[in-house]
Fold:
Amino acid sequence: MPGMLEGKSVLITGGGSGIGRATALAATREGANVAVADVDRDGAEHTAELITRAGGRALALQVDVTNEAQVEAMVAAAEDAFDGLDGAFNNAGISRGRDYQPGMLTGDLPLQAWRDVLDVNLDGVFLCLRQELKQMIPRARGSIVNTASVAGLIGLAGASPYTASKHAVIGLTKASALEYAESGVRINALCPGYVRTPMTQGTATDEVHASRMARTPMSRYGVPEEVAEMVVWLLSDRSSFCTGSSFTVGGGIEAG
Ligand code: NAD
Structure:
């Protein structure tokens, strides 16, 4: 059976780690050429190497998604390398900004801690989405997936910049999906629950892990590969009637 993404080319930001890397490998398995973009050059190159070893075709790109010129150059490079883009996964994100101290609540947040998160998680998605639309709309086809979070659907205490940024990604996804609903380009949001990646494992204490598990009905972290399965389906033509929607992969977290 041919892969879900056979003959397609996709761009993945935040592709140097976690959910982005797992999706890059799942997209390769499904037959896609993959442009792997990340601010972490080594991470992007390592993912590209894993793709090549798996028999796929990859391009590694270093990009800061908050930088307009770099985002334009990234989309142009991916388009040139693969003769157009069929899919994009706008997934680069951070959980906290500079000046953030553990335990800080909204009333104590320095402006920088707020802006850093909004810059990457929201402005970064906007800049990528805008550039991808410019490229995909004239060709009248494409599928774009923006990474939000369960924190785009419910509030997470102690993480108001992150929660606000992810709610905004869902709003941006809905509005742009409506604008382009008849264009052949679909835009959806992905809402992972707690997934085992450097983002969640980095500095979390036992207490933090326990509270996450208490919120997750399946009582475990997801693994990036479980999220990647949803993304490749959304990037593929198999999800052809889906646009403007938010898809949760979260072990039941939003049901409670
Ligand atoms: P991760 O830290 O493993 O990967 C994030 C990647 O984004 C890193 O490789 C990082 O270098 C890259 N990145 C950060 N800032 C960037 C920038 N300015 N420009 C380009 N690349 C940048 O984390 P992950 O868990 O794989 O997160 C991927 C996405 O999933 C994020 O948007 C995150 O908010 C979201 N998410 C994660 C979880 C989870 O539990 N892990 C849950 C919900 C949503």
About this structure: The chain has a mean pLDDT of 97. The radius of gyration is 17 Å. The longest strand covers residues 185-192. Strands lie at 9-13, 33-38, 58-62, 87-90, 142-147, 185-192, 246-249.
